[in-house]
Amino acid sequence: MQQPIIAFHTDNEQDWVAELICGHNQHVRHNPPWTNRPWVLTVTGRDQFIGFPLACKKCQRGEPRDNPY
User: Fold this and answer.
1) DSSP string of 6-65, one letter each residue
2) pTM of the model
3) Surface-to-core class of residue 26, CB atoms within 10 Å of its CB (0-12 exposed, 13-18 middle, 19+ buried)
């Protein structure tokens, strides 16, 4: 299920996490060569992806929201 990104934060290991409108979180790491997301490293890059839809596996599995709001 596609869910738009509404914000970003870092986790305890300083990896970037996308906050989705559905209330779930999803890591959006830049970890070449496996994951190439250089846009996540800058504020401008992250801002350009606000509203971008990501496939939310937690929604597909019917998991409860990560964020209580």
Assistant:
1) EEEEE-TTS-EEEEETTS-EEE---BTTTB--GGGGSHHHHHHTTT-EEE-HHHHHTPPP
2) 0.89
3) middle
- What CA–CA distance (Å, rounded) separates 9 from 18? 7
- Domain count of the chain? 1
- What is the full per-residue pLDDT of the chain (69 aa) written as tens digits? 999 999 999 999 999 999 999 999 999 998 888 889 999 999 999 999 999 999 999 999 999 999 665
Considering the domain boundaries, does residue 68 fall inside one? Answer: no
Domain annotation covers residue 41:
yes
